[in-house]
Design a protein that fits this description.
Number of strands: 5
Structural class: alpha+beta
CATH class: Alpha Beta
Strand content: 15-25%
Largest sheet: 3 strands, antiparallel
Shape: elongated
Strand order of the largest sheet: 1-2-3
Helix content: 40-55%
CATH topology: CBS-domain
Radius of gyration: 18 Å
CATH architecture: Roll
CATH superfamily: CBS-domain
Number of helices: 7
Oligomer: single chain
Length: 148
Amino acid sequence: MRRNFPWVSPYTPLKELILRFRDSGCRALPVVDEDKLLGIVSLKDLYKAFFYTEQAFFAKMMRLYREDIECDIFDTPLTPEMAFLISAEDLMEFNPIRVSPDCEIKEAFRLINVHELSFLPVVEGEKLVGVVTPFDIMLYVLELKGVL
């Protein structure tokens, strides 16, 4: 389990959220308020926000006809309204799948695989205490088998 993992507040504006994704390299981030896990915001959630803009909609439609046109949300210009009025809370998935610290590693692995998760939040009560990633499980298994 990783105890130090990037997270965002529900009040994190879209502009800062985009920078957080870019800088962290994560595909999803926990949304936390006063140590309480509220939800998860993912790159897919960001895509949804961008595809509601007229320019992104046009680019998406053009991709249906021409494969050489790319639509990259990180290059899409933001309006000031969109950049500061939309927050992580507006985009996040509420009540994500979570486990307690005493969850068996096999169960964590099953949940990550079945639900195609980037990470699995670990909570004590409602407090986020860490996350488990597929890489963490792989390292654990390799250490268990004496490979590492």
